[in-house]
Amino acid sequence: MNFYGVFLKQEKVKKLLSFTIKENNVIRALKLPQEIFLPLLFSVHYGGDWSLKKNSKKLMSIKEKLTKYDENRKVGCTLELIYLFVNPVLVSEEGKIYRMEKCSNNNERKLVERPYKLTINGEYILKATLDPKKMKIFLKRLEGPINFLGPCAYGASHEIEHLNHDSIKGVPFYDFEYILEE
Ligand SMILES: [Zn+2]
User: Domain residues for 78?
Assistant: First the structure.
């Protein structure tokens, strides 16, 4: 690595450290055990939905994407709405969608059934809105229940399955059959 490379690496470490300090401060201001926020932080840092069990608490984060587009200026942004649930409870679900899913625990895709609509409540719900245009992450406490539709309902159902049964049940891709069409 040349001198400039070392300089860039130092700059990155500095920025990452400064971000982490600010992140810890904002979490401390919420006055709850720090581990509660882990799934939300994973969603911010690495993307996707997350779930984990920690100190007899079930925790999950569900990410919703919302693209705003200005037809006149031809510019927009994809907002990320991340919902953090402590001890999520499934209130209701509707519909059955057959779909393929891949889980980070297992790379083989599986056929699963998910609800199209789903309502979840939790002991504590926090919403993070990540705005890529403003480069800000807004945090807001919410009162449940929260309704999810489509991709978010699939994601929430997937994470609740992890929390309640650990692994995801489904039919593997190798049970499918290719058909050559005329
Ligand atoms: Zn999974």
Answer: 32-175
